[in-house]
Design a protein that fits this description.
By secondary structure, the protein is α/β, with parallel strands linked by helices. The protein has eleven helices and eight strands. The protein has helices at residues 28-42, 59-66, 92-97, 108-113, 118-131, 143-147, 151-163, 192-209, 212-218, 232-235, 253-262; strands at 16-21, 48-53, 71-75, 100-105, 134-139, 174-178, 219-223, 241-246. Strands 1-2-3-4-5-6-7-8 form an eight-stranded parallel beta barrel, surrounded by five helices. Helix 1 packs parallel to helix 11 (253-262), helix 5 (118-131) crosses helix 7 (151-163) and helix 7 packs parallel to helix 8 (192-209). It is globular and about 45 Å long. The model is unreliable at 1-6 (pLDDT under 50).
Amino acid sequence: MRKNSINYFPYNFMQKILIANWKMNLDVEKSLNLAKQYKKNLRTLKGLELVVAPSIPLIIPIKDIFGSAKISLSGQNVAAFSEGAYTGEVSAKMLKQIGCGYSLVGHSERRQHLVEADEMIHKKIVQSYAAGITPVLCVGESLKEKESGGRDAVIINQLQRALSKVEALPDKEIIIAYEPVWAIGTGVSVEREDLIHVERIIKRALSSLYSENFYNEKVSLLYGGSVNSVNVSVFWGIDKLAGFLVGTSSLEANEFLKIAIQMK
């Protein structure tokens, strides 16, 4: 562990990873109570990188709760700029200083509700690497894009626009989270065969953008979208799938534990 008791445990990219995205669902008291339950449930699990993405104002008190427990922290978002007059933004450097080893970038809810464009997502990737944070790049298609047969093109375009000409690549690692927009928070998840197909599309796009070695050695693939303890076994075991980005099910400590146990 690094100095100043910062909760940052370097991720081995051959390791399984499970990320809890609490979004803006919990107030302060509920967030701190959930963190305490996480620590109790998860502190003895080994061989699995556990990451929690709470609301940014709660990162420091949750870091203190986790203490020496091997639970890493992530930002739910990161600024596209290193510093300056950007009211309300939090830089990658700040996230790093308060204990984050990761940050979500380009989550579909930000693309959809906050009109976050590909150019800004690209800049956030650049800022993350500059601060020493591993970006978790979220990609995925809407229901309309899925039904029109545009899924593959959407995913390829999102990857190309976010990652093209990023100076840190292909030397640095990256986590790609496939989160189909239509599956997030709906209780409906993708079919296993569809996820296998998407993995091939992501491999093709990143191998073309950089190289197949980059994809094999530096990329970890996650699935997110109505993941729970019932359906996680459907996906677990797919080649290249390193883990999951969990939203709603991460708000229940025991449900999240059940997911983690199935990944052991």
